[in-house]
Design goal:
Blueprint lengths: L3 E5 L5 H9 L3 E12 L16 E3 L4 H11 L4 H11 L4 E7 L5 E8 L6 E9 L8 H15 L4 E7 L3 H9 L3 E10 L10
Parallel strand pairs: 6-7
Antiparallel strand pairs: 1-8, 2-7, 2-8, 3-4, 4-5, 5-6
């Protein structure tokens, strides 16, 4: 297995990045950490007629299916493990259906105990339902749910390559607070036997 580091891109980590560059470690999956206060900017409003967003304290089968179709890595066993990880923190799960009643997009607001912060995760829209305002409806509903629960600030993670999602989050008042990436050791050839 290769050695992998998760490092922030800041002055404090610069010397370690220099060492890893010299050792040939690759740079992968640059991720932005975005934050916003609870009341600084209202959530994005849906511009089209969007069915009501369903909010639940646990992920429904429809919620899991949409999220897994977009972000899943593995079969049913892996999805069952992922579900248990999701349930490890109190959360609000949001699902919106298209006008025909089919699940279209999902998101999750994690509410860690002992803090007034909320983390937005698992934002996923099925490819055939994108650019219809579903992600905006999910995001707005989760921000409102957080406000109703006394959340004072929100955070989320988005890959640097996902410009569409970054635009959505910027419209909702999120700003970059940091970024990190993974540094992976280049694969080495196994020693040859005699």
């Amino acid at each position: 297995m290769p050695v992998i580091f998760q490092l922030f891109e800041d002055a404090e980590a610069a010397p370690l990045h220099g060492l890893l560059d010299a050792e040939g470690f690759t740079r992968q999956s640059e991720t932005l950490v975005l934050t916003r206060g609870a009341t600084q900017v209202p959530g994005p409003a849906a511009t089209r007629a969007i069915p009501a967003v369903e909010l639940t304290p646990e992920p429904s089968e429809d919620w899991l299916r949409v999220w897994w179709q977009v972000d899943g890595r593995g079969g049913d066993e892996a999805m069952a493990i992922a579900r248990e990880v999701l349930l490890g923190c109190p959360s609000v799960y949001a699902l919106v259906r298209d006008n025909d009643g089919r699940p279209a997009a999902v998101g999750r607001l994690a509410l860690p105990a002992g803090t007034n912060l909320g983390g937005l995760y698992c934002m996923a829209t099925l490819p055939e339902t994108r650019r219809r305002g579903f992600a905006s409806a999910i995001l707005g509903s989760l921000l409102q749910a957080g406000n109703h629960r006394g959340v004072t600030g929100f955070w989320l993670l988005v890959t640097a390559a996902n410009h569409g999602a970054q635009e959505l989050y910027a419209k909702a008042g999120f700003e970059e607070a940091g970024r990190y990436l993974y540094r992976q050791e280049r694969p080495r050839r196994a020693p040859a036997g005699c």
